Structure formats: C-alpha cells, structure tokens
C-alpha cells in the first residue's frame, strides 16, 4: 500500500477533511487541500519531514505511513518473498492450513522477527479475550514500536530443542 493510501486511510479514520489535515500539517489554507490530495493520489510523495508531521497529526508512527508497496497480490507476494530472504519467513502447511513461520536459525534478523511476532500475537490475544479494546489494539499497532512495553518474552525455541540443549549441557558437567 502506497504512502498516499495510508494517509487517506488514517485521515478517514480520524474523520478529517483534506484541507483540515493539510492545515494541521502546516500548509496555507489556500492550497492545503490540493497538497493533501496530491499526496493521497500519489502524484506527489511527502518528504521525510512532512511524513513526520503527518504522522504526528494523524497520531501514528511515521512507519505506519511508509509500509511497503502491497497494492497488488503480486507485489504482496514479492514482499513475502523478501521477508523469506531477509528474515527467515517460511511458508508451510499445518493441519491443512497454509501458515507462515519464522526460521530462527536463519540469523539474528529472523530471531528478532520472531520476537516481534510473539509480541504482536500477545496483543492480538488480549484483544480476543477482551483484555484490551479494538481502539487499544489499533493504537498499539499504529504506534509500534513506541507503545511496545513487552521487551521480554519467554518462548525462544521449541521445548524439544531446549531439552536437547539442557541435556547436552548437563552431560558436560
């Protein structure tokens, strides 16, 4: 999804008009709506300082506005291929369902992705059980990592691997 689409998504979510957002970012009233329309349509791309101001006004992280281009299914699949290459994301089948998993043995980037997915799953589980509201969940997602307070998580390796490592350590004693 291009940055213009993300700006449009969050502007609508906040119930703002083009001119209102443009003025809040700092554009003059005379062309605030035109400039925002150009950004949302993709005919112009905001520079980094404008992106930061937009994020601030829209109450999201700048990274929430600059997600990869996933405008087509092919683009989305190539994004997933890149995640496989760089972060160890793997596609597999479990009980007849296609699932994505992280191969933590692919390196530190894969391990960090796994950690982030556990944190995400934790928040999704809280939403599912009613511990947090949809608004709390969205706020966490749209402000990640600023609002991430977990920083600790216990499940790093499968239990079988942990048992094997501990067994080998005990043999050496």
Quick rundown:
The protein has 173 residues and is mainly α. 60% of the residues lie in helices and 7% in strands.
Task: Give an overview in words.
By secondary structure, this protein is mainly alpha-helical. The chain has nine helices and two strands, in the order ααααααββααα. Strands 1-2 form a two-stranded antiparallel sheet. The radius of gyration is 21 Å and the shape is globular.
Taking Cα atoms only, what radius of gyration do you get, to the nearest Å? 21 Å
Succession of helices and strands: HHHHHHEEHHH
Number of strands: 2
Point out poorly predicted stretches.
Answer: 152-159
Q: What is the CA-CA span between the terminal residues?
A: 55 Å
Helix fraction bin: 55-70%
Q: Biggest sheet, strands in spatial order? A: 1-2
Structure characteristics:
173 residues; mainly alpha; two-stranded antiparallel sheet; 2 strands
What is the element layout, followed by pairings?
Blueprint: H1 3-13, H2 18-25, H3 32-41, H4 48-58, H5 62-65, H6 73-87, E1 89-94, E2 97-102, H7 108-129, H8 134-142, H9 159-171
Antiparallel strand pairs: 1-2
Helix pairs in contact: 1-3, 2-3, 7-8
